[in-house]
Amino acid sequence: MELTWHGHSTWYVTVAGTDLLVDPFFGNPQTALDPEDVDDPDYVLLTHGHEDHVAHAGAFSDATLVATPELVAYAEDNYGFEDAVGGMGMNLGGTVECGDAWVTMVRADHSNGIETGYETSAGMPAGFVISDAKPTQQSDTDSTAFYHAGDTSLMVEMREVIGPFLKPDFAALPAGDHFTMGPAQAAVAADWVGADYAAPMHYDTFAPIELDTDEFERELKATGAVAEPVILEGDESFVLE
Description:
The N and C termini lie close together (6 Å). The chain has helices at residues 51-54, 69-79, 156-166, 183-193, 213-223, and strands at residues 2-5, 11-15, 18-22, 43-45, 64-66, 95-98, 101-107, 126-131, 145-148, 170-174, 197-201, 228-229, 236-239. By secondary structure, the protein is α/β, with parallel strands linked by helices. The chain has one domain: Ribonuclease Z/Hydroxyacylglutathione hydrolase-like (Metallo-beta-lactamase, Chain A). The longest helix has 11 residues, at 69-79. The model has no long low-confidence stretch (mean pLDDT 95). The strands form 2 sheets. Strands 6-7-8-9-10-11-12 form a 7-stranded mixed sheet.
């Protein structure tokens, strides 16, 4: 599994022959790319409807959309998407097969109004666990899983459900504070989900979410988490094996 961070919360994930793009927002200072510079993904995953997570979704409308039914309907009307998993989107707790990948939608604690006057709801905000095998009660030591937490605060769901059941190997966690978790809570989240690797995201895009990533590393060490910190530059990749 190859994971590429394009700044903010934008990740390009390749699982065998399947490409998935999460929260496409290339208007951030950590990427040198425009949407047209990015290979067309097979699937676009949207965690919620805020502009800094859906801004460039329309550039990839030929892909199959994975999001809540409410956000799918909005994206069909506003971004030109015609194809969604199951024809209607998915919801929290569900797992869908996306080519060579399995995508499980998990809870995130955040707001989720569409930013056009806030008269439209995009349903519940979400995170995703992307794996190369279907999650089951039987442990598969050969499988790998990537957890994209979306925009969220620290929540016991990480400790009680996401960690023990979905067993992510790599956790991408918002750490910029103000709108999401800061580095201290993100470090606890990494510990709770039991990931081998943890990367901060959703930082340094706007003034309120500036982050010294050394602080994330210090907090991660202080929790006693097994996770190794992964601090990526924008457009840099990490191979999860």
